[in-house]
Amino acid sequence: MKDIYSIINTMRAFIIKKIPIREYDELVICYTQEDGKQVYQAKSVLRSTSKQASHLDILNLVDFNLVQGNGHPIITSAYCLNAFSKIKSDIKALAVSFFIVELMDKVVMEGERDGSLWDFLSNKLNDINLFANKKDIFWQKEFKKIHAEAVNVLGYGKGLSIEEAVERRFGSLQLIQNVVR
């Protein structure tokens, strides 16, 4: 008989969203290099003594192991490879980055691997991290380039706004309007 908690996979992923469940657990929505968008469970990460909590922060690039649970696979041994600390210290860079992760959450279907989406996510977050905290960056212009590339990578027609293309509202666009000038 197989152990219910045997390791099923090692993953590399960007954390795009977290949803609290139960008292101390979270569902962690990731975009993985191997399997596309996935939902995993992180046990006890909301406890003050959790060692995994800081590794599983939104925007982080992480490596982790998975074990099969009764529902969603369970994250174990999470290790942050890149916390994008420059992004997190610059409100304009953070606003543009939140658009990217909201896009991945709202538009990308679960379980569909797409190398071009992984490259887009990885390249854009790395670029934004390089630009963060620099005074000579015109964030409105950078956002427009990222938006146009996102529409293209997702296969929508040029000239459309992402909200028109997917018929959904994006809260991050309001944040961008307020802080990116």
UniProtKB/TrEMBL annotation:
One GO-annotated biological process of the protein: double-strand break repair
The name this protein goes by in its record: DNA repair protein RecO
Cross-referenced SUPFAM superfamilies: Nucleic acid-binding proteins
Record has Transport as a keyword: no
Species for this entry: Candidatus Yanofskybacteria bacterium CG10_big_fil_rev_8_21_14_0_10_36_16
Keywords, in A-Z order: DNA damage, DNA recombination, DNA repair
Signal peptide positions on this chain: none
Lineage: Bacteria, Candidatus Yanofskyibacteriota
Coiled coil: none
Domain DNA replication/recombination mediator RecO N-terminal stretches: 10-83
Claim: DNA damage is one of the keywords in the record: yes
GO cellular component terms, A-Z: bacterial nucleoid
